[in-house]
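We modelled the chain as a single entity of 92 amino acids. Its sequence is:
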Amino acid sequence: MSGWKNPYFVVRDDGIGLVDLTNREVHILQPEQIPAELVSLGTDAWPYGRVVLVTEAKPKDENDHTKAEIRKNRGLLVGTLKELDVSIQEAP
């Protein structure tokens, strides 16, 4: 999804990553930080409207615990985005 221009989240077992589109660096956020972080991006970061791209990272050590953490973090992200009335585009 190298051509994507709106905010881009990566759900990981250690948190929720927001991808910096200028350098592809991932910033790990707590769910409560997401609203302020999205607001701080400004209007130029939303050329497609109120939609974000969401994908999941494959953990290095895939076990029941890491899978559960990814499900938990994904749920927290989806819930937060719904509260903000932001749509989700799923990435492969």
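As a brief sanity check on the tokenised model: The two ends are 9 Å apart (CA to CA). Helices lie at 34-40, 64-83.
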